[in-house]
Design brief:
Chain A: It holds the Pfam family Response_reg. Chain A: Keywords: DNA-binding, Phosphoprotein, Transcription, Transcription regulation, Two-component regulatory system. Chain A: This is Two component transcriptional regulator, LuxR family. Chain A: One of its GO terms (molecular function) is DNA binding. The complex is a heterodimer of chains A (207) and B (833). Chain A contains nine helices and five strands; from the N terminus they run E-H-E-H-E-H-E-H-E-H-H-H-H-H. With 207 residues, chain A is α/β, with parallel strands linked by helices. Chain A folds into two domains: 126 residues, 3-Layer(aba) Sandwich (Rossmann fold); 59 residues, Winged helix-like DNA-binding domain superfamily/Winged helix DNA-binding domain (Arc Repressor Mutant, subunit A). The relative contact order of chain A is 0.10. In chain B, 45% of the residues lie in helices and 23% in strands. Chain B has a six-stranded antiparallel sheet. In chain B, strands 2-1-3-4-5 form a five-stranded parallel sheet, with helices on both faces. The longest helix of chain B has 39 residues. The two termini of chain B are 120 Å apart. Chains A and B meet through helix 1 and helix 5 of A and helix 19 and helix 20 of B.
Amino acid sequence: MQTEHPKKPAHTVFIVDDDPAVRDAIRWLMEQVKLKTQVYSSADEFLASYVPGVRGCLILDIRMPGMSGLELQEKLNAAGALIPIIIVTGHGDVSIAVRAMKAGAVEFLQKPFTDQLLLDTVQSALTKYSAIWDQEARREKSNKSLASLTSREREVLGLMRAGKPNKVIASILNISVRTVEGHRATIMSKTGSRSLGELFEMLHSHS
Amino acid sequence: MSFNNLGSDVNIRRLGIGSRSDVCNLLFVSVARDLAFNLSNNLSKLHRIEFISDDNQLVAKVQARPETVDVVLIGAELINPLGWAQRIHTMDKHLPIVILGSAAKCGQLRRDLMFSPFVGHEIVVWPTTDIDGLTDVLVDAAQRRQQRQLYQEAVIANAHAQIEVLPLLQPETAEYIEGLFDHEPIGVLATDPDGTTITINRQARHILQLPEDSALGTPLPKLFPKEERARVSKLLAAANQANGRLPPELFEFPIEGGRSCFIEVTASAFSHPRGRRGAMFVLQEVTLRIQAEKQRTEAVVELRLIATALAALHDINAGNDNLSEKIRHSLHLGCEQFGLPIGLVSRVEGNSFNIVESVSDKPRFAAGRVLKLNRTYCATAIDSSEPIAFGHAGSTPWREHSSYKDSRLESYIGVRIIVGNTLFGTLCFMGEEPRRIPFSAAEREIVKLIARWIAGELLRERSEAHMRKLSSAIEQAADAVIITDPAGKIEYVNPSFEALTGYAREEVTGNKAHFLQCDEEVQEELWTAIQNGNIYRFLLSNKTKNGRLYHEQMTVSPLKDNKGTTAHLIATGQDVTALIEAKEQDRKRQAELAHAGRLSTLGGMVSGLAHELNQPLCAIMTYAQTCVRKMQAGDARLEDLQHGLDQIVRQAQRADEIFMRIRNFSKKSQIRRQRASIQEIIETTLGFIKSEIAHNQIKLRVKFLKEKRLVFADSIQIQQVLLNLVRNSVDALSTVTRKKKEISITVTSEGSHFTKIVIADTGCGCPPQELQRLFDPFFTTKEAGLGVGLSISQGIIEDHGGKLWLENSSAKGSTFCLTIPNWRNSDNANRAS
């Protein structure tokens, strides 16, 4: 059943396969469903241009000259890359499949695959990782914003987190309530939180 | 004494007879003057002519002085010329007369002359017309006359001389005769009718061996030896009655020393001067002559004996008997000739006397017996080239000989037999009885003859046996033998040929030999080799009479005669059908095994091949599905589908190629070597295994030659070999982790006729204990391996005429090399390599 999937232009499908025909076919398919693609003929090539944090999924073959697919997977895991990996291989072996899955692959597909199956897998991977990426994005953001806090603001934030009202914070820090309110506003704007709830969530995810 | 034969020996002048001048006197009777004139012109000055015309003158002339007339010419006018002629001839019969007459009259005259009794021979009628002829006639007649006169005078003169001398002889005749006789080596004696000797000369006395004064008065027979007296008496009687001389008779006189002398006695009747008869005997000693005759007779006899022996030997030869029988015949011949009962032929070896053949009633001398040489007479014969012979051993030193003591053989004749320069043995004839007469020279010759004949027969037998051996060697040889003339026409084939080809001797003789009917290049090489006097070897395939295929290893050599020209060709053929067929079988097995190897190889590559096929399949699926998607989207244009569809086609083709490769590789096809590009072969091979190499992170380096190198090979088979080697390298590299993994394939030239491929890897090498067995069939170090790879590969390369070997192997890696023959433009060159 063909369904049009909602597009997120930010998503890129990375295709790594040493066989040019397979590469091109997958690319053509992805482009038909309006997915951005990036093709590489080897794992090394991919790694060379990989930007961590990029939103996208990796369609990866196992048997390739030079670095194999599993090796690439290992490397990405070691680097903590947040990119879903879909193994697509003609080399079907139970042990390899188990290894790949255990190493965190999203899916292990045997060639030849149906287009629907691949597309579904890509979509689900992207969807699944969207939340993660968002989360990660927020974390980044919070980290950034938190990092931009001055030390006084950080003190204030710490006390706010402890649940202390402004008055108490003022008295602890020996500053005026108005200054505390001013710091709170700065903190809220620096962190881009719209509510305390958001702020505290951000802090939570940060820790 | 007779005067008949006395001629002009007597000197006429000495006897005083008047000498004759050379002048001829011609008497012309009534000859016509003019004719006479003509004649006188023709005649020389030495011819004097006198003319008469009447008979008184004639008489006076002829009768009185006949010496003054040499020829009478009677003229034609005379009426009765015959009468005149008659008158002249009564006076002198021998005076030549020429009667002239006219041509007509001549005929009549001649006729009359024929019947005229009173004329002599010297008369001729001549025509007056022939004056020249007449001249000659006259001259001739005159000459004849003169000669006759001369002769007569000489005879008469001699007779006179004799008559004058004769009275002088008479008183001394008897003594003279006797003196004469005494000095002649002839014995003469005369007897009276009673037979008593009345005269005897010294020689006769000597011949008859009579003392000086005896004999006279003795009866003749008493003078002769007792044995001859009867014959002498008979001779005497015959002589007394004979009219002339009797034929000579031979009498034998024994003389001292046991010999005889021979006297030839010629008897004749003798007329005593007083008229009484008696006999005269002429005696001649003819001993030497008799002896010579005897010797001649003996020699003739001997020659006849030898000739008979020769003829007999020839007859023996002409027969169909075998050697043994022939020799026995010759022994019979000898026994007959010599009159001895035992004849034998011996072979002598060291001290061993082996009786080969014998004719004998004595078991001691039977054929097959062996005696000791030093106990035979023959031992002496061996050392001499002439025969040893004796007729009575017992009366000579031979009686001391051990053979005499053993067997008491009195007579013996033996000679050695030499066969081909070496002593064979002896031939001898023996008997227990002594021989009456000693062995003659002829008999010695005969025994030598027989010995030589036997030697000849033995030698011939030896040569024939040798020939038989050689010819039976060819006849019975296991290989087929063909003998042809220099052009290749068959003259002889042996039974092995018949068995091999199925053709009988008669069917092929005269035809061109089959090995000369093969293809042209072989023909050329064959004839070149033969003409240079060399041997040519080649493999020939042919069909038997029944159509069955067979293979022959042929060797053809020229046979030279003693002048050095090629007289024949001899070809031997060894049936290698079984071998070739076995090789064929072997090749088939090898091919099957190679096929199995290929399948096994393919089997080992299945996962890789599956993966390889999977790629195009996956691509096709994806492209096709995307096309469908596009179409279902509704807004697709045809051009949008183009890319996908094109790719589908391409990928399908790619898959097809892979299938083809597999199909070709796994075919159990006929091995066919042909022109192929080595680069293509290598690339196809790599097509099989490139992905596997890549996936194993092995770096592949391939170096081709600059030019497009063509080889003469079966592509599939070479692919199999290369694939085998490369896979081995891949396997060797599979355990390598730390260093670089490399396989290099390099193509170079090996000499001018071969291409060399070097496959090197940087693997772990081959352990030393496996090196030796590396190319052994079914040797493998892989769990799943059949082990056919390297041995099959080597077999394949060697079948191609190349070589496959391990160049070196160490912990740093292994290098294998193989060579393949290049494609050469000449088809046959490729076949030959």
